[in-house]
Design goal:
By secondary structure, the chain is of the alpha+beta class. Helix content is 35%, strand content 25%. The protein has a seven-stranded mixed β-sheet, with helices on both faces. The protein has a five-stranded mixed β-sheet with strand order 11-10-12-14-13, with helices on both faces. Strand 7 and strand 8 form a beta hairpin. The chain starts with a helix and ends with a helix. 45% of the residues are buried. The protein binds D-MYO-inositol-1-phosphate and calcium ion (2 copies). The site of one calcium ion has 5 residues, from strand 4 and helix 6.
């Protein structure tokens, strides 16, 4: 597992360098619109290629799911690398300094290795299954806060402005009222790492993709946190909605979320 993590770190660093070299240098003509308000740049593509080249040279018989490539699902391989080459592209194109590279390795659909590099801090969050979670090689833990009222939360909003987006606006309002605040940073992998290192107590989001969560969920779990779907059912990376917390405020959060989830047709 350590060899897999070393490869993930090497690949994530390479992609992070590509992003940092190009930060504040993106022109309007570099931005491709994937869907309403959803963008990609040559940086997303170059970073993804660099990551895939490193993985394929060391592990040619492993599967890869990467945001800017096909396939989006793979059942053919025991080991699958799940890559977000640039998480927080909207921040990146606006020169807003908060984005990341996220690489998770799953074995038979279970996360075994996770690596997220947060940029520009260059904090590197890592985890190997059953071996704990680390930031810059120092062990990290979720917070011990057990009072929702004293908690700080973070969320994100998907690109589709559908009924779940609307529901999340309501949840944002509700949780802002019953906690010490809700943040919206714009990179889901970073949000998960912030739960893992205890600077926020919980994170939820509706419309995520496997590459947003593949690495971060292991980092949260290994830091002692809890991950479920937003109705409390077990999470896997192909379930789009997630609730991640320090464990202590999980039930109180689920209680607040339930009426809103129950009102949705999904
Ligand atoms: C997005 C970010 C954002 C989240 C969106 C994601 P991208 O990823 O993680 O925080 O709210 O749901 O799609 O498109 O920047 O890789
Ligand atoms: Ca993403
Ligand atoms: Ca991305």
């Amino acid at each position: 597992m350590q060899a897999l993590l070393n490869t993930a770190i090497k690949a994530a660093r390479k992609a992070g360098d590509i992003a940092q070299m190009n930060f504040d240098r993106i022109n309007a003509s570099d931005i491709k619109t994937k869907s309403y308000n959803e963008f990609a740049t040559f940086v997303d593509e170059q970073a993804e290629k660099a990551i895939k080249d490193i993985i394929q040279s060391r592990y040619p018989d492993h599967g890869i799911i990467a945001e800017e490539s096909q396939p989006k699902k793979s059942d053919k391989f025991d080991y699958v690398w799940i890559i977000d080459p640039l998480d927080g592209t909207t921040n990146f194109v606006h020169n807003y300094p908060s984005f990341a590279v996220s690489i998770g390795v799953h074995y038979n659909n279970n996360p075994v290795v996770g690596c997220v590099i947060e940029i520009p801090s260059n904090n590197i969050y890592t985890a190997i299954k059953s071996e704990g979670a680390f930031c810059n090689n120092n062990p990290i833990n979720v917070s011990s806060e057990n009072n929702l009222q004293k908690s700080l939360l973070v969320t994100g909003f998907g690109y589709d402005h559908d009924e779940k987006w609307e529901a999340n606006m309501n949840l944002f309002k509700l949780f802002t009222d019953v906690t010490q605040g809700v943040r919206r940073l714009g990179a889901a992998s970073v949000d998960l790492c912030h739960v893992a290192c205890g600077i926020v107590d919980g994170f939820w989001e509706f419309d995520l993709h496997p590459w947003d969560t593949a690495a971060g969920i292991l980092i949260v779990l290994e830091a002692g946190g809890k991950i479920t779907q937003m109705d409390g059912r077990g999470f896997d990376i192909f379930q789009k909605q997630i609730l991640a917390s320090n464990g202590h405020i999980h039930e109180p959060m689920l209680k607040h979320i339930k009426p809103i989830i129950d009102s949705l047709n999904c």
